[in-house]
Amino acid sequence: MDNRNRTTESTNHRGTKPPSRRGKRLLGVSVPLWSILLWSGCNSAPPLPPYKPVADTKLLMQAVVDPSADELWDSVRTIVDREGTHEIRPKSNEEWTAARNHAVALAESGNLLMMVPRAKDGGEWMKRSRELIDQAERAIKAADAKNADELFTVGGDIYEACSNCHQKYLETIVNANK
Fold first, then answer.
1. CB of 53 within 8 A of CB of 125?
2. Cα-atom radius of gyration of the chain, to the nearest Å?
3. 3-state class of 53 per DSSP?
4. Percent of the chain with pLDDT over 90
5. What is the pTM of this model?
6. Burial of 61 by CB count in 10 Å (0-12 exposed, 13-18 middle, 19+ buried)?
7. d(C-alpha 27, C-alpha 80), whole Å
8. What are phi and psi of 82, to 5 degrees?
9. What structural domains does the chain harbor?
10. Staple 154 to which of 2, 7, 115, 138, CB 3.0 to 4.6 Å?
């Protein structure tokens, strides 16, 4: 066998040179270092969004929640008077869109109620806010489906969600700015 044509460098199964001792040392240091950097980056909380709540709970109720709920309830109702029974239902696309938009405002108000400084606590308050979101989301779906009977039913469920919250928190909210 002629050793003159053989190289002294070995290759691995891929045909590349294995790392040198120096390369192994760098690899041994850099892999853990990169792992630590990546791990620490994954576990750090993202910065809080720059929210700026403008309305307190009372004003949010007066300006958004109450008017939106009233308009939603007024969009599907039954009136009984001396002249008979009158069924009020959205008829045009614009009326259905208006009902849906009021439901969207209610759902998103539930999210706004969960934000500091409006959130009164992390338990019951959050549960009641979520109840408003869930019922309003059902109203959105009913309006999108142009289902007046479902919209009427969920209107009652929204009223119940509001009443559940008011039973515990209404006095606190009403007296907040006194």
1. no
2. 31
3. coil
4. 62
5. 0.71
6. buried
7. 82
8. -60, -30
9. 7-44 (no CATH), 57-174 (1.20.120)
10. 138
